[in-house]
Amino acid sequence: MPTQAWLDILRCPRDGERIVAGDDPSNAATSGRRCRGGHPIAAGEGIVKLVWPERMMVRDAHMNRMYDRLAPFYDWSERLGTRLFGVHTIRERTAIVERLELRPGLRVLEVSPGPGVYQKLITDHIGPSGSLAELDLSLAMLGACARRARKHGLDPLLVQANASYLPFADDSFDAVFHFGGVKLFSEPGRALDEFVRVAKPGALVAWGDEGFGAGAPTGWRRRALQRINPGFAEPVPPLPDGVSDATEHEVMNGCAWLVVARKAAVGSERLAAL
Ligand SMILES: C[S@@+](CC[C@H](N)C(=O)[O-])C[C@H]1O[C@@H](n2cnc3c(N)ncnc32)[C@H](O)[C@@H]1O
């Protein structure tokens, strides 16, 4: 089960209650943990399971099935994509993480890490005094994150949950980062609101996804990308409330965008009242 520091900020997505030791610690299915509202919390293979709503909305369920199937081939398909479409994935990912202003000791949430392609890049910045939570809907992707972490001697918190219902307390993270899924979530606006909610006031919140910019490929490459991934045609979602200093960047050789913003330093309730 997660360390006490993680338990302090984890919340049941049903009722927002803290997660406490249950009355049956021998129950392997729940690890004996319940939320204070009494709902059992499942965990296994080093992954805490806090998916809500239990019955996923249509798009989320579809994405979940698709990414569970894609997980074993994800790294391979990326390498192929790099060759075909000329995207310098490693260089571009490095540049994206450099925009997050990470430094040693920070507590970072990465939403939708896939198989953990940013895991090492992020932990290199935050060092052993920092901590990383990786949250994805796909158990197969989280399994790949766990294997990658073992290979690099890392120990991220792995959580199966829906990005639009984050199982964390308000104001928990020094940085929140998401790349590559928001436009295809069932509730993208809600997910962005959640990224802001769980960030500490003043923390950096960054999210990005596919979309053609000035440097994007043209001709058959463009048509092929659009066909493979309908996300290229979807508009950039509007900014969530409660952020300031938002800037938009073209990344992945013109095949994606990244918004970098800060959670406004005043509480969201006060912002709403202004
Ligand atoms: C294209 S992959 C991106 C992986 C990685 N971030 C990258 O940049 O390569 C999209 C990821 O979003 C996850 N995902 C899809 N819907 C989700 C949701 N509603 N909540 C959390 N994660 C979700 C998928 O399981 C998958 O791992």
Can you give a write-up of this model?
- It contains 9 helices and 11 strands.
- With 274 residues, it is α/β, with parallel strands linked by helices.
- The protein has 2 domains: 1-42, no CATH class; 45-273, Rossmann fold.
- The strands form 2 sheets. It has a 9-stranded mixed sheet.
- A hairpin with a 4-residue loop joins strand 10 (243-251) and strand 11.
- The longest helix is centred in the middle third of the chain and has 14 residues, at 139-152.
- The relative contact order is 0.13.
- S-adenosylmethionine binds at residues 60, 63, 67, 112-114, 117, 136-138, 141, 162-164, 179-181, 185.
Which term fits the overall shape? globular
Mean pLDDT: 90
**How many strand elements?**
11
What percent of residues are in strands?
15-25%
CATH architecture of the largest domain, by name, is: 3-Layer(aba) Sandwich
CATH topology of the largest domain: Rossmann fold
**Ligand kinds:** S-adenosylmethionine
Helix count, per DSSP?
9
Structural class label? alpha/beta
What is the topology, as strand order, of the major beta sheet? 3-4-7-6-5-8-9-11-10
Terminal-residue CA separation: 42 Å
Low-pLDDT stretches:
25-29
CATH class categorisation of the largest domain:
Alpha Beta
| Major sheet characteristics | 9 strands, mixed
Would you list the SSEs in sequence order as H and E?
HEEEEHHHEHEHEEHEHEEH
> How many domains make up the 3D coordinates?
2
Rg (C-alpha, Å): 18 Å
Helical content band: 25-40%
Task: Let me know the CATH homologous superfamily of the largest domain.
Answer: Vaccinia Virus protein VP39
